Amino acid sequence: MEHYRHFRELWDTCKTDFPVLDKNYSHREKREREQCLDEFFRELKEGMSQGERIPAEIDTVYFFRKMEEFFRKGLDYNDEQLRVILSPGMIDATLDFVSEAKRFDSLMSAESIFQACRNIWIMNGIQYVLGVPVSLSPSIFAYSMLYPYSDNLLDDPDITTQKKLEFSSRFEQRLKGNIVPAMNRSEEKIHELVCMIEDEWDRQTYPGVYKSLLDIHKAQTDSMSLLSGNLTDEDIFRICVGKGGASVVADGYLIVGDLTGRQEQFLYDYGAYLQLLDDLQDASEDLAAGLMTCFSSSVNKKRSGELLSRTFHLGFSIMAEVDWLNTCDSAAFKSVMKKSIDLFIIEAVITNRSFFNRWFVHKMEIFSPFRYSFIRKRSANLSPYQKILFRNIEEFAFKREKREPASLLVTA
Fold it and tell me: Residue 392 sits in a domain of what CATH number?
């Protein structure tokens, strides 16, 4: 609760002034970036044959060079930011993960692998800010794979609450180190992934690793109550940010085995903040699904603008805590974090347009690199392009696997 109280104090003392982002765009500048986006996806699409295989002449270097070009010209990332998000370590870890995920479970969908990739990128970012070489370790792989399995089971509307609670109880016992029977294929895979973590981090030597895993498991279980409809605003906020905070604290333990008090507090605050950003973006979907978050449970337009503004300003408090870690590249990490926050905020407004009054939407559009009308028009067609993008990544991972057939997840 100490971590939560600190985060709650940060939230309560944040300003609610309208967000002023780093850059605004003229109509001409928006059109230029829209053309850049269309060109980027058109080149990806044309680069794939009907069977969606990458022609031999299109190599990994070319693909990521085109991605860097779009990030620079279309989204205005600078050299320092690109050096972090498209570093060789980040790219290698992504490709390694995709090939390992396919090897681990050939039945896992591309959507689930992409879901897991999001955690890989967060953990790689934490490696960077903690001063650890960016790579894919067995525990990073295992933890990122755990939650597509458990989330998909817990989110399945066809599975009763009782069955979900029974699964949660078995999962908890396995995290405690007890051997319990797996009731289905997903649970078998979950147990294999826990074994990977146990092989890397001895339970007696690194108790914090397993405490952190039990903490995120409890937070995941508690989050099931967000569908109940019988919670106060304080309950909703505590459960939501607790889940995000516990998740990223576990990231840190699985990366280095042990954490200082300040490292743990920063990771909790960073994870809680990432959860708020996710909930902000998903507010409309969560409202439709009956899932309560501090954004979906409040559809009052005036209140939604205040919550978004408070979330934006909270980011500066979290960025200031990066300096606690005393890493030489904290400035670069903060720069990437600020850029990501700006893009999250812009996208959240257009995704949840009905939550905000017209003045708020119009004023926020000034900071968007694309016209909102363009985003709305392209949103219906974006999913196929995302699939093509991920198919490129899968193909490059496949080509790497053909060159390096041995598993990357062998511990010393």
Answer: 1.10.600
Q: Give the closest residue to 142 by CA, choosing from 104, 87, 182, 86.
A: 104
Environment class of 302 (CB within 10 Å of its CB; exposed 0-12, middle 13-18, buried 19+):
exposed
Residue 409 lies in a domain: no
**Phi and psi dihedrals of 347, rounded to 5?**
-65, -35
Q: Which residues span the domain enclosing 133? A: 2-10+30-403
292 in a domain, yes or no? yes
pLDDT tens by residue, 288-318: 888 889 898 766 556 899 999 999 999 999 9
CA dist 346 and 55 (Å) reads: 36
d(CA 395, CA 81): 26
Tokens of 318: 């979290």
* Rounded CA separation 194/171 (Å): 10
pTM of the model: 0.90
- Decide if 100 contacts 143 (C-beta within 8 A): no
Query: 3-state class of 306 per DSSP?
Result: helix
- The number of folded domains in the chain is 1
